[in-house]
Amino acid sequence: MGQRSIGRSWLLLLLLLALIASAGDASEAIDQALGAPGLRGSRLSVLVVDRESGDLLYARHPDRPLVPASNQKLLTAVAALATWGPSHRFETEVLAPGPVKAHGELAGLYVRGAGDPSMTSEQWWRLAADLRALGVVRIRGPLVLDDRAFDDERWHSSWQPISARAYHAPVGALSANYGAFRVRVAPGAKVGGPARVTLDPPVPYLKLQSQAQTGPPGSQAALTVDRVALGTAEQVRVSGSLPYAGEAKDVYRSVAHPTRYAAAVLRQQLAANGIVLEGPTRRAPVPRGAEPLLAFEGFALGRIVTLFVKNSNNMIAEALVKLLGRGPAGEPGTWPRGLAAMRSTLASLGIDLDGVRLADGSGLSRDNRVSARVLVDVLRAADRRFEMAPELLAALPIAGRDGTLKKRASTTRDRLRAKTGLLTGVTALTGIAQTTGGREVVFSILANGYTRGDRAAMNAVDAFAEAVVGEGW
Description:
Blueprint: H1 3-34, E1 43-50, E2 56-60, H2 72-84, E3 89-96, E4 105-106, E5 109-112, H3 121-133, E6 138-139, E7 143-146, E8 180-186, E9 196-200, E10 206-210, E11 213-215, E12 222-230, E13 233-243, E14 249-254, H4 258-272, E15 276-277, E16 281-283, E17 291-300, H5 301-310, H6 314-324, H7 335-348, H8 372-383, H9 389-395, E18 416-423, E19 426-434, E20 440-448, H10 454-469
Helix pairs in contact: 1-10, 2-5, 2-6, 2-7, 2-8, 3-4, 5-6, 5-9, 6-7
């Protein structure tokens, strides 16, 4: 063997030893993060692979099925993108007993929902503006809302107990503002006086009852906000106190009936566009022979996916599942049919779902079971498909920048995009990272059953992410 060949062999050997040593350093840093007190007593499922090749970089019980919390949304997002594509838009149909009369009148207005979860107050205003552009100025008959595109199960049976918090918003085929509203509470003009409380949107359907007071300067803010269904309306009850000259507080709550809430928002936006609606609101099927006025298109699915993944929006996730569950003959969307369709779509992408249990689309249910390997495989399957990869990557929260990672893992800023997950005793993080050495990896960590509280566990998971991004791969 010549001297040049011997030298080259030594160089290759040294490079190999350096790679082994660096990999060992990385594994040691990850082991240290996973051994933190915040994860003590937890069951873990962890996997890190090379983004391009899929080569294994780190694993600990990667096939152990655990409760994924909101990491479940990745499965829902990928199934939706694979089914419809990122440019798809769900339509809300608007019909009437007949065409718009010469003087701008209609005998009634019918709205048939198709499950579009992106209908905010702004979108309902746009729909009303489109009606105004058609010449509508007065509706003498009723406002009829047809929400039969979904079944009547508003909350999944495994979510009990249901609260009035915004993350427990009901799922309906006609909705507004993701089934939630904002309560803003600000201190009043003097100590002992009433606090200033406003609702957004300010619709008559939400009836405010406030006993909130203004406390002494520097006192502790203590507010209770609840809502109670009262027939065809909902009462928003606010109590407690805020310190004088202190900051206003925003509290978000869900509604009890999504269709009635959507009707109230639509009535408000019709009035904002100068359209007088004289008749009552009814929930009923659109009559046969109704005249189509417009088919209002909501946000593109790519934008919807960004909204619900970045901000971990449960209502959007469940609406997408029920949309997947619409029957071929127009049968209403249900959780069982939607989850079956979701499972079939993921399997068609090459995902091995053995041992996976799908209970809902958002991860609120503790009956879900998913492993780190499945989550990594789902991300890699989407990442390899041009038709959905850009949208999914853009939807992932950026560490230290936005979404549910805005205030987390800040040392990995701009190098890590990942979906968070959190239930009491459950935390998770799945995403894509670029290491300081320039390598791109796909990773997932699920932790169930830790004993030192959610904050400590989340800090440990963030330390794991920092170890993944750190040099050594």
